[in-house]
Amino acid sequence: MSQPTFYYFNGRGKGEVVRLLLTFAGVSFKDVRVENIDDALRARLPFGQIPFFEDNEIELAQSGSIIRYVAQKYKIAGDNNVDIAHGDAIIESIWDVLTPYWQTKDNEEKFNKYKTETIPKFLTRWEELLLKNGGKQFVGKSLTSADIAVFHAIDHLNFLKVYQLETTKYPTLSALYTTVSEVPALKTYLAARATDSKF
Description:
Protein name: Glutathione S-transferase
Structural class: alpha+beta
GO molecular function: glutathione transferase activity
Domain GST C-terminal: 80-199
Organism: Cavenderia fasciculata
InterPro entries: Glutathione-S-Trfase_C-like, Glutathione-S-Trfase_C_sf, Glutathione_S-Trfase, Glutathione_S-Trfase_N, GST_C, GST_superfamily, Thioredoxin-like_sf
Strand content: 5-15%
């Protein structure tokens, strides 16, 4: 296999972090966007679902496992075990922000609580964690997978038209968002990214 292949729907959802990480790491990969999981693909999926990643070493399912594998393989997870662990916790936290959108969007009361309580709670925690590490990145002294994942969470909230980051309220987080978006490889990817994503 000449290059890694990543299978997911034509959506951001559970797949976009992987795409961003591979792009950030400078990895050329096949971005296979499927409409439906056909029998041939399903037969290769450990749990019958995507996302699914393969390279010369592994065939791997589950978004969290793929994120960790890619981040560690391409050395963008952190410089030591402590940083990697802290970064991984931050990555996991983005789903506590994004998943409730789908769980609450059809219930006005729950959706309002999600927007006014859940999202600000995690943005505040992320702001605090950034400041605790000096304000430039979440762990270590350079950008890691944790920074890319939080960028995705903020970007996705904006894409879903749920929340737009308040720069005055979260200045450190806003600065990180800008820094990540200006990484040359990511800037090129984001500018060319499909706008017809379904989710």
